[in-house]
Design a protein that fits this description.
342 residues, alpha/beta, D-Maltodextrin-Binding Protein, domain 2, 2 domains, 44% helix, 16% strand
Length: 342
């Protein structure tokens, strides 16, 4: 009899353990059932951020408890700040809306941009779909073949606007360490800059993602039409172990700190975030569903068709990058802002 009671107690304990997770998930599933979740995209259709947001909206509902419907909605403006301000100020705090914006938007308050009316450390970061490894490329006929050559030879590089990575980073290197970039702005987009390289109008472009290069310009690599001078990222891409990081050109710890500060946005590449004050269990459910979606074979197949690379990092990982950046020395922050504004 005593053995039977022990077996029954063990069975009851095991059953309780099995049921507990289901019960714990019920409030989230009950909330989302029958609802529609909006994924707001801080840019118009056609760009990489749009691809990530649109593809995510197709599949994330199958991984979120309650299986709500998902829709993607574009909200372009102010380089991604419009959607960030909306999420922070006007979006419902219930987990039915979240957004993707530019990788730099979360750093604009630190840089003194008065149009950034939000505190990035109060947002609920869901995760990141791709760590950005942007490259500085030089056409094979240019005198610059490797990063060290930039200190001795002029290199004509193209860009769209003065505030883009492709222009801001070369300008920073010119002022900080004495590189000899000559910059040509005004190109409508990166495709036009690449065409200008082929035509010989410019010799370089310091803002192309590795995933774009290997997927859409593979013949440039196969035919050795370009030299990759350096990577603009916090860590080397696994495909490019022998290509130096831009930080390696720094001569002092202070210069490296400034470059790390300027490159922090690369680490959170394609960030998704929800408003402040969303209930913690729903934030966790969104994060788990996001992680599962980025492993979903159908999602990955669509991403591959769109030519976008997927590299997952978690919401807490994104938040850690932001906290590290916002903890930088005031001197480094001021100097970085000064370099960007000059």
């Amino acid at each position: 009899m005593r053995a039977s009671l022990a077996r029954f107690a063990g069975f009851a304990f095991a059953l309780a353990g099995a049921v507990a997770p289901t019960l714990a998930q019920t409030p989230v599933a009950d909330f989302y059932k029958g609802k529609t979740v909006r994924v707001l995209i801080g840019f118009g259709p056609g760009g990489s951020s749009a691809f990530y947001g649109e593809i995510l909206a197709r599949y994330m509902g199958r991984h979120l408890p309650g299986n709500p419907a998902f829709i993607a909605q574009h909200m372009p403006g102010a380089g991604g700040l419009t959607v960030a301000n909306f999420i922070a100020q006007r979006s419902p705090r219930d987990g039915t809306e979240f957004a993707i914006t530019s990788r730099t938007a979360a750093f604009e308050p630190q840089r003194g941009n008065k149009n950034a009316a939000f505190d990035p450390l109060k947002l609920n970061w869901i995760g990141n779909a791709n760590v950005e490894n942007s490259l500085c490329l030089a056409w094979t006929t240019a005198p610059v073949k490797r990063m060290a050559d930039l200190l001795d030879h002029e290199l004509v590089a193209g860009g769209t606007g003065a505030d883009t990575l492709a222009i801001a980073m070369p300008k920073t290197l010119n002022r900080m360490v004495g590189t000899k970039f000559k910059l040509v702005t005004g190109y409508p987009n990166s495709t036009d800059i690449l065409l200008a390289m082929e035509r010989g109008e410019v010799q370089a472009f310091c803002g192309l993602g590795w995933s774009y290069l290997k997927l859409r310009k593979a013949e440039w690599l196969e035919q050795k039409k370009v030299n990759i001078l350096f990577q603009m990222a916090m860590q080397k891409h696994p495909d490019l172990p022998d290509v130096p990081l831009i930080q390696e050109i720094a001569r002092t710890p202070e210069q490296k700190e400034i470059l790390d500060l300027l490159l922090a946005p690369q680490e959170i590449g394609r960030p998704f975030f929800a408003p402040p004050d969303v209930p913690a269990d729903r934030v966790e459910a969104l994060r788990e569903a996001f992680a599962k979606t980025l492993k979903d074979p159908d999602f990955l197949a669509d991403a591959d068709k769109a030519g976008v690379e997927v590299q997952y990092s978690s919401g807490p990982d994104v938040e850690a990058v932001l906290r590290r950046s916002y903890a930088a020395s005031p001197q480094a922050v001021a100097r970085a802002a000064e370099l960007l504004q000059e």
